[in-house]
Amino acid sequence: MAGIHIDSTDRKQAALELESYRQQLEVLVRERTQQLEEKNELLQAEIFGRNQIEKELRMSREQLRTLASRLLTAREEERIGIAREIHDVLAQELTRLKFDLSWLQRRVTQPGNKLETELLLERIFGMGQVVDTAIRSVQKIATDLRPAVLDSLGLCAAIEWMARDFQTRSGIICRANVPREEPPIDRNAATAIFRILQESLTNVLRHADADSVDILLQQEEDHLLFIVRDNGKGIAPGSINNPLSIGLTGMRERALLLGGRFTIHGQAGICTVIEVRLPLSNHKDVTGEMS
Ligand SMILES: Nc1ncnc2c1ncn2[C@@H]1O[C@H](COP(=O)(O)OP(=O)(O)OP(=O)(O)O)[C@@H](O)[C@H]1O
Ligand SMILES: [Mg+2]
């Protein structure tokens, strides 16, 4: 009887132990499964992240390609514009002058031709006017390519000149607030600011529907601040970071190349503001001298 009793107690004990092992094993399996699931989730997130980065890389490569080709087209269009101006305006004026000169020559050299002083004077006066127009055309073409005032009088005077010229041509009020002394920047920085101003004013004329523009150039402690603000309809947020906006991209690139910052923002129906900050310490010549 005692043996039987021990046997059944042992079996019970063994069964209990077995059950406890089974339970421990189950906990272990559950824990391991959870760990694996977590690892799996992490892996999935990593794969998703990588795919996302790859997609973004592909997109930015595509944007770069489009941008490069648009830049080429823009340069080509600029050349076409200059060629058209030379061909349609200057060439026409010179042709007219040549025609008048031949007429004069015939009048003067034809034997027996009575010189009608009044007619001749009228013709010569007309020729003088054509020469004046041609001179103005040449000046305009040259100014569009690079305004002499920027090199001869400096950035502040060039900005004031540009504001006056813009106001006269467009009828949009244009105020320029520039420092009395020329800020210590080199030729590249001055050119960049001038070109940014040119593009901003062209944009105001083409897109803003504004009746006034305010330009500010101000020397801050360690940087130069340049602001162009118009009171037009306000740039749409979608246009701001669109890589296909060549004008804006060009302005941003000019600022970045000089270690500066470019921002543009708008308020619907109120304004568009362009802000450029160029670090002053960077604006040294290759010789290391401040210009
Ligand atoms: N001052 C502004 N007011 C309102 N919208 C503006 C202004 N400046 C720019 N925009 C908007 O931003 C867009 C992008 O300007 P951006 O100068 O890059 O291109 P664009 O003037 O259309 O062409 P381009 O490449 O010849 O300069 C414009 O098409 C216009 O919709
Ligand atoms: Mg533009």
What does this entry look like structurally?
This protein has 291 residues and is α+β, with helices and mostly antiparallel strands. The protein has a domain at 149-279: Histidine kinase-like ATPase, C-terminal domain (Heat Shock Protein 90, 2-Layer Sandwich), CATH 3.30.565. It is built from seven helices and five strands; from the N terminus they run ααααβαββααββ. It has helices spanning 2-109, 117-145, 148-152, 155-170, 187-208, 237-240, 246-257, and strands at 173-177, 212-219, 223-230, 261-267, 271-279. Helix 1 runs antiparallel to helix 2, helix 4 packs parallel to helix 5 (187-208) and helix 5 runs antiparallel to helix 7.
Which structural traits does this protein have?
binds adenosine-5'-triphosphate, 7 helices, elongated, 291 residues, binds magnesium ion, Heat Shock Protein 90, disordered C terminus, 67% helix, 13% strand, five-stranded mixed β-sheet, alpha+beta
Question: Whole-number radius of gyration?
Answer: 38 Å
CATH topology of the domain at 149-279: Heat Shock Protein 90
**Beta-strand content estimate:** 5-15%
Taking the alpha carbons of the first and last residues, their distance comes to 115 Å
Low confidence ranges: 282-291
Number of strands: 5
The dominant shape is elongated
Largest sheet: 5 strands, mixed
Mean pLDDT: 87
